[in-house]
Specification:
transition metal ion binding; 126 residues; transcription; single chain; DNA-binding transcription factor activity; two-stranded antiparallel ribbon
Length: 126
């Protein structure tokens, strides 16, 4: 199953919330993404059926290995792109918003070049 941008956003939100809070429920995801609880319920059902998440009897969400891989990939892109934008002088809020849009649309090759460029800057080679 092809995961759409919104599905990637849900997985990224689960990962981010898990890192911040340890446990994640659908209501937490709704708050994080600014969407309704019914929208989250529909998305969680699709992500469960696709094998990206599980939900226990208490309503706690967990990423499967497959979901974790997608979430980590998207979240890494988000953080790196936001850092690059802030390094260019973009304010933090705008950088975070625009990174969220860019992260889904750049190719793996372009992202790898951005990552290498940032590493060169950090290493003092630029």
């Amino acid at each position: 199953m092809t995961l759409h941008e919104s599905g990637e956003d849900y997985l990224e939100a689960i990962l981010k919330l898990r890192e911040e809070r340890g446990q994640v429920r659908s209501i937490d995801v709704a708050g994080e993404l600014g969407v309704t609880k019914p929208s989250v319920s529909v998305a969680m059902k699709k992500l469960r059926e696709a094998g990206h998440i599980t939900m226990d009897e208490n309503g706690l969400l967990s990423l499967t290995d497959q979901g974790e891989a997608v979430a980590q990939r998207i979240y890494e892109r988000h953080r790196l792109i936001a850092r690059l934008l802030m390094g260019l002088g973009v304010d933090e809020t705008t950088a975070a918003q625009e990174a969220c849009k860019i992260e889904h649309h750049i190719s793996d090759g372009t992202f790898a070049k951005m990552k290498a460029h940032l590493q060169q800057i950090q290493d003092g080679n630029l």
